[in-house]
Design brief:
single chain; two-stranded antiparallel ribbon; 2 strands
Length: 202
């Protein structure tokens, strides 16, 4: 009988993927402790788990019914078109998504600190994306909070914050690659302090 594969460390999984701006930033700028180091269920890479989670979500019959479609393919096409978010922004999370989140938290108990409404599809899916994208808890929670403020994009709102925005601009000016994600004030302060120690910022 074959033995189940051990969950991969996300740091190893992210070396095989290109969707992970926090890890790309951390590696490119020779930093540590910026990205979230999460384990992934089923021995998958982060990208692979993100893909399979969406496939399982598209196959959920209750979600298809709520979206007004009848097939997995139709729901996927609707989803990628973007219009589904207006229809499903307040939708309840299907059980498949709750089970997936529970599996992530079981492997990574620190994820219990993520502020997420596990009963709502959008909140729970954004939390999934935060984990599979390799963001730390501060960044996941910050993104979730920013989505509830006004109508603008979270990244635009973050750059408009009086202290946080200028700090992000200073960091991006000396970073390669820059912060291509909605970094929290806590993460930006860590980066700023390390850059100051390296003499990259005053």
């Amino acid at each position: 009988m074959p033995q189940p594969r051990k969950p991969l460390s996300i740091s190893k999984a992210f070396n095989q993927a290109s969707r992970h701006p926090a890890w790309n930033f951390q590696r490119g700028n020779n930093l540590r402790g910026i990205a979230g180091a999460w384990k992934i269920p089923e021995g998958m890479t982060a990208s692979g788990y993100e893909d399979i989670t969406l496939k399982r979500l598209f196959a959920d019959e209750e979600l298809q019914q709520l979206a007004g479609v009848k097939t997995t393919r139709a729901l996927e096409a609707y989803w990628r078109g973007g219009g589904i978010w207006q229809k499903l922004k307040d939708a309840d999370a299907p059980q498949v998504l709750k089970d997936s989140w529970d599996a992530l938290v079981s492997l990574n108990p620190k994820l219990a600190a993520v502020t997420v409404d596990r009963e709502k599809l959008r909140s729970l899916l954004d939390a999934h994306y935060g984990v599979t994208s390799g963001f730390n808890i501060d960044d996941i929670n910050f993104f979730q909070a920013q989505k509830k403020i006004g109508d603008g994009l979270p990244a635009k709102q973050a750059h408009a914050m009086p202290d946080h925005g200028p700090r992000l601009t200073r960091i991006d000016a000396v970073s390669k690659p820059p912060m291509y994600w909605v970094a929290s004030p806590e993460t930006a302060k860590k980066v700023e302090q390390r850059y100051k120690r390296k003499g990259l910022l005053n």
